[in-house]
Amino acid sequence: MTDEWAGHPRGSREYRHLLAALFLAGIATFAQLWSAQGILPLIAVDLQINAATAGLTVSGTTAGLAAAVLPWSWVADRIGRLAVMRIALVSASVLGLLAPLAPTAELLIATRLIEGVALGGLPAVALTYLSEEVDRRHAAVAAATYVAGTSVGGLLGRIVSAPVAAVSDWRAGLAVVAALATVAAIAFIALAPRPRGFVRAAPMPPRAAVGHLVRLARDPVVLALWAQGALLMGALVATYTYLGFHLEQPPFGVPPALASLLFTAYLAGTASARAAGGLAERFGRRRVLIASGGLVALGSALTASSLLVIVVLGLVVLTVGFFAGHAIASGWVGQRVRQGRAQATSIYTLSYYAGSSLAALLAGVLYLAFDWVAVVVLVTLLGVSAVAVALAAAREEGWASTGEASR
């Protein structure tokens, strides 16, 4: 992209269509990504598999997404951001509609994993697409519109699939969400304006690409921010994936359709993400990041209670901590790095979803072996580790509360 901006002027018809399209793309992507999470107990019963295996329908999808982020970003440098997003959404929609037809757990998990690979095209390039098509003075508003779509999509995927599954079965729950996501994807393709700011990039030789990533990794603060994404997202996904199984058991006895309402705690998280920016301006980003990890650990510990109201409180506290920390860390990566910003943010996204997959996988094994208390211990340790990483990196030059974005 050149210094002479060539994108869509604010207020124009194309600009409005761009914002609407990205909002819908966020819904289409994240509704499908998380649609299985609220109905895992029903999947486990119907396919006669344990909780850890059922959890692979979530962790496998996020693993596929994590593995695909960098490849999609490299493809987008050649064929364009909009082309990648179109291919990703069409592919994911087809796979999302096929997943409910899977006759076995193995085929369901495999389909969901490939669906994750397809879905990776959106988070890999969406913000880069925005930076090319929207004036930088209005980029924050445009990015917030996309993020709002991802939040709404994630919430819809979880709270729509469970009630539908309760009156029918889990296949119907997945199918309804996939159909909604397909409609959103079609609307995105129809609305997204022709790109103006894309400039095809020459392919970077593999050796040069690896060398560039190594240079980024030499910055301990960048490493710490990547780790924050992995640790905090891992804590969130591990908790939400297996909490439904825990609440089905005594003394709670909460059915999956009702347990899915706990996902509305995401609304508190969305509010905390917005508040985190103001708190960071007042107290410094490093303090907010450290506090976020502490909230995740505290919230996890509270979910060990035998009182449902305390469990819900703990879930809200954990969710608030995650969203605040993610908002700070994800934004800080782009500001910390001057050269290779796209790669640095792509690796943050990769670590974010890789952390969620690994933590959910480990949580499933621990849940089968030791029940919910083991998941609580794991998630609490992830929160404490996030605090420790932030404190360790705080000693490095450039992490001070003044001049935090100097690099």
Characteristic key phrases:
78% helix, Growth Hormone, Chain: A, disordered N terminus, mainly alpha, single chain, 2 domains, 407 residues
Largest β-sheet summary: none
Fold-level CATH name of the largest domain:
Growth Hormone, Chain: A
Cα shape:
globular
- Strand proportion: under 5%
Q: What structural category characterises the helix and strand content?
A: mainly alpha
Work out the helicity level. over 70%
Number of helices: 16
The CATH class of the largest domain turns out to be Mainly Alpha
Mean pLDDT: 86
Query: Distance between the terminal alpha carbons, to the nearest Å?
Result: 21 Å
Second rung of CATH, namely the architecture of the largest domain: Up-down Bundle
State the fourth-level CATH superfamily of the largest domain: MFS general substrate transporter like domains
Give structural notes.
The chain has 16 helices and no strands. It is an all-alpha fold and 407 residues long. The chain has 2 domains: 1-200, MFS general substrate transporter like domains (Growth Hormone, Chain: A, Up-down Bundle), CATH 1.20.1250.20; 204-407, Growth Hormone, Chain: A (Up-down Bundle). Helix 2 (40-47) crosses helix 3 and helix 14 (308-336) packs antiparallel against helix 15 (341-370). The protein is globular. The two termini are 21 Å apart. The model is unreliable at 1-5 and 400-407 (pLDDT under 50).
